[in-house]
Amino acid sequence: MNAEVIQGFNNHIGILKEQLEEYFEGKRKEFTVPIYTPGTPFQQSAWDVLRTIPYGQTISYQQQAAAVGKPKAVRAVANANNMNRIAIVVPCHRVIGSDGTLTGYGGGLWRKKWLLDHERSNAQEVQSNIGKKGAVV
Fold first, then answer.
1. pLDDT average, residue stretch 53-78
2. pTM of the shown model
3. Would you call 78 a catalytic residue per the annotation?
4. What is the DSSP annotation of 93-128?
5. How confident is the model at residue 106 (pLDDT cuts 50, 70, 90)?
């Protein structure tokens, strides 16, 4: 198939760029950019659970499997997370081992640790500003 790729502007990419910049600045806790996540019904349910994990917090793969209604499907959930192609926006980095260890992240465990540390640091900053005069939360 011969196809020509033409560079151009896409509103969704512009929104995503802005929201990612805000995320890395510690200003954005949730993404609102419209996304399309093609996958199996099971993958969709696993990714839906990822979107419910609060900023700066984690759950285990076991908890995620239970949340999709398949408590014994820990490996399948981990595989679905691995197939997530919109990391950070669909925060698979917030899933850890049942014993609290960092496991399974396609971007590398060092990056998963950095993302979790980044979120925890900024979540604490927001928490410490609640109730202060002029604080924006």
1. 97
2. 0.83
3. no
4. GGEE-TTS-----TT-HHHHHHHHHHHHHHHHHHHH
5. confident
pLDDT tens for each residue of 12-25: 899 999 999 999 99
Assigned domain for 131 exists: no
Range of the domain at 103: 39-123
* 136 within domain boundaries: no
Q: Which amino acid is at 96?
A: I
- Tell me, what CATH number does 59's domain have? 1.10.10.10
Maximum Cα interatomic distance, the chain, rounded to a whole number of Å: 61
The token duo for 92 is 């698979």
78: in domain:
yes
Q: For residues 52 and 92, is the Cβ–Cβ distance under 8 A?
A: no
Q: Catalytic residue among 92, 95, 96, 115, which?
A: 92
At 62, which amino acid appears? Q
One-letter identity of residue 94? R
Q: Is residue 13 in a domain?
A: no
Domain count, the chain: 1
* Spacing of C-alpha 100 from chain mean position: 18
